[in-house]
């Protein structure tokens, strides 16, 4: 959550199945939505967040397992989006990665995702709409286990 430049957004909503993360979101001044059906997959998380933020011009979707992601990188994504508000803007290193900021025109497609799939299916369908903000590989490291997190220190 430290990577979120909260002042750059009109609203920040965290969707999680974990109460500890919801409490932490509150400490950052962010809204939290409890995902009581994580078994429905990533698409359900996206749907909950998109419903909550549907009045926005764009939504930045971030994953929780990139501990090296810097706030400056997220701010650059926002800057590029402000210059190109009709484009999907994401972080990348030798290709696309996370996070990604989607303009409102893609919300319907994001809401239609099913199963354990995320926004990459929408990006694949609209590669011509994607702008990447290049960053280093370390920032985009996907840390899925306590051992992987320990190896970063």
Task: Tell me about this structure.
This protein has 153 residues and is an alpha/beta fold. The protein has helices at 19-27, 42-53, 71-83, 107-112, 120-125, 146-151; strands spanning 13-16, 31-34, 58-61, 88-92, 96-103, 130-134. The chain contains 6 helices and 6 strands; from the N terminus they run βαβαβαββααβα. The strands form 2 sheets. A 4-stranded mixed β-sheet has the order 3-5-4-6, with helices on both faces. The protein has a two-stranded parallel sheet with strand order 1-2. β1 (13-16), α1 and β2 form a beta-alpha-beta unit.
The end-to-end span amounts to 18 Å
* Uncertain segments: none
Order of secondary-structure elements:
EHEHEHEEHHEH
Q: How helix-rich are the residues, as a percent range?
A: 25-40%
| Tally of alpha and pi helices | 6
Give the mean pLDDT: 93
User: What overall form do the CA principal axes indicate?
Assistant: globular
Radius of gyration: 15 Å
How does the SSE layout of this entry go?
Blueprint: E1 13-16, H1 19-27, E2 31-34, H2 42-53, E3 58-61, H3 71-83, E4 88-92, E5 96-103, H4 107-112, H5 120-125, E6 130-134, H6 146-151
Parallel strand pairs: 1-2, 4-6
Antiparallel strand pairs: 3-5, 4-5
Q: Which short descriptors sum up this protein?
A:
153 residues; two-stranded parallel sheet; 6 helices; 34% helix; 6 strands; four-stranded mixed sheet; alpha/beta
Give a concise summary.
This protein has helices at 19-27, 42-53, 71-83, 107-112, 120-125, 146-151; strands at 13-16, 31-34, 58-61, 88-92, 96-103, 130-134.
